[in-house]
Each structure stands twice: as structure tokens, then as C-alpha cells.
Task: inverse folding
């Protein structure tokens, strides 16, 4: 049954990512998705570790957010920028993705801890 929760969440997350990618230009769409997903992961991590456990955490964090964010899309974006010889854009995109995604998860965790205490 656990696999069903993860699979359904993953399908939903992938559909959300695809929908958002249609509305935001390359490569910014993947950056937005990964930063937003990291922020939501920070919130979910604190929420599920203090409130709910088990299948709902797997459904949301592993399924939805795992399907929503993707390292493979980020990697492809970087390769496409390199192939287009946009080296400065590629380097900036790599730095922005890592820095903003890490900041977002910390902010999400901080905000959730403030809210639940």
C-alpha cells in the first residue's frame, strides 16, 4: 500500500511540475520549481516529523514533492545552456539553483517551527 501512496503522489507532483513548466520560460521554470519544492519540503519535514508519520509523509514528501522537483531536469537545463555556449548563464543557474534551494528549505523549516510552537 505504501508504494501506491508514493506513486499517486509522484504522478500528481509530476503533473504539477509539467503544468508550471508550460507557463515559465526555460530555464527559470526548473529553478522556480526546485526552490519552491525545497521551501515546501522544509515545511513538510517539520510538519510531518512533529505531527503526522507514515504514509501521508511518504505521499507528500517522497511522492508529490519528489515528483514535483527534479535533479534530472536541472541537469538537462545546464547541459542545454552549455551546448548553447551560454557558459555564464549555466554557471549562474547552477549557483542560483543550489543557493536558493538550500535557503528555501531552511526558511520553510524555520517558518514551520515558528508556526507550530
Result:
Amino acid at each position: 500500500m505504501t508504494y501506491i501512496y508514493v506513486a499517486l503522489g509522484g504522478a500528481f507532483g509530476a503533473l504539477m511540475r509539467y503544468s508550471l513548466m508550460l507557463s515559465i520560460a526555460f530555464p527559470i521554470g526548473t529553478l522556480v520549481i526546485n526552490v519552491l519544492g525545497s521551501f515546501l519540503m522544509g515545511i513538510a519535514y517539520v510538519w510531518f516529523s512533529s505531527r503526522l508519520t507514515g504514509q501521508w509523509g511518504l505521499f507528500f514528501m517522497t511522492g508529490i514533492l519528489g515528483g514535483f522537483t527534479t535533479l534530472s531536469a536541472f541537469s538537462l537545463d545546464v547541459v542545454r545552456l552549455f551546448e548553447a555556449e551560454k557558459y555564464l548563464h549555466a554557471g549562474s543557474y547552477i549557483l542560483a539553483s543550489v543557493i536558493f534551494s538550500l535557503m528555501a528549505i531552511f526558511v520553510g523549516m524555520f517558518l514551520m517551527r515558528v508556526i507550530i510552537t
Notes: The chain has five helices and no strands. The helical segments are 2-23, 28-50, 55-68, 71-83, 87-116. The chain has a mean pLDDT of 92.
